[in-house]
Amino acid sequence: MTEGEAAPAASAEQATRNLLIRIVAALVLAPLAIAIAYAGGWLWIALVALAAVGLYVEWLTVVGAVQVGAIVPGAMALLISGICLAWGRIDASLVVLALGLAGVAWLSPPLRRWTAAGFCYAAGAEMASVLIRLDQVWGFVALLLVLLVVWGTDIGGYFAGRGIGGPKLWPRVSPRKTWAGAIGGFAASLVVAAGFAAFGLGRTGPLLLLGSLLSIVSQFGDLFESAVKRRFGVKDSSHIIPGHGGLLDRLDGFVAAAILAAIFGLLRGGVDGVGRGLMVW
After folding, report:
1. I need a surface site. Which of 49, 64, 222, 245 has the fewest CB within 10 A?
2. Is 186 a domain residue?
């Protein structure tokens, strides 16, 4: 084998190895996340609060603002907010997050806009994830729908993008993403939504509409995170998840979809009925 032939072969072997690592990591982490989501309560809130802190710290790493003045008030606010949510005090949680935002902005003047934006990103993810699960009847079903739509979008986009290829979606921001991948991910989200309808967990039309909106927003969330990383010349937010990069890399689509779902559920079902507002039309 010549040197020219060896390079593509090595690249293909590395791609296969990375795919296997991604699959193994997903097979371990996805059932664990679903089990904790099913348990709900303080266990889910604890996971969400820790993930929010991780998202915030990774954001600071990406934008080059890892400093005590930014990390401490933000991380403490996210953790205390989680405790308030576990006690059922959403009002107190919002006050804590507002104080945390003020502290982050005051104590990190060099990159104030970016640190504040990162805190809002993590706080939005925390609050949305808890509100969706809050409904005792529909909360888990609604959260599972959001998770599976996002995962289906990622998986469908990955295989459609690699298998079909074609024109790039937004090459300046994410050189690897294609229109074929975007459409494949969108189609996968419709399959997920149709599956929920088939099991009697909602009406077909509204579920297909909701699944399609969540899929589109999750893809925009992915592109948004890619744009931030490209702005600061960063490839991966971290390497905490084998084959997937960091929490930001793995949860970018979910954060966007969860925030949209929480807003929609709030408008239709109120604070205690976000899950029902999403699923019962």
Report:
1. 64
2. yes
User: Is there a domain that residue 31 lies in?
Assistant: no
Question: What string of H, E and C letters represents the secondary structure of 80-141?
Answer: HHHHHHHCCCHHHHHHHHHHHHHHHHHHCHHHHHHHHHHHHHHHHHHHHHHHHHHCCCCHHH
Question: What tokens appear for 272 in the block?
Answer: 């205690």
Residue 28 lies in a domain: no
As a whole number, the mean pLDDT across the chain is 91
Structural domain of 161: 135-281
- Token pair, residue 138, equals 């529909």
Say yes or no: 149 and 272 in one domain: yes
Q: What is the pLDDT of residues 39-74, one digit of tens each?
A: 999 999 999 999 999 999 999 999 998 888 899 999
For residue 85, pLDDT beyond 90: yes
Q: Does residue 201 share a domain with residue 106?
A: no
Shared-domain flag, residues 212 and 155 = yes
- Paired with 178 in beta bridges are 168
pTM of the predicted protein model? 0.91
Position 20, amino acid: L
Q: Which of 182, 215, 179, 202 is nearest to 278 (CA)?
A: 202
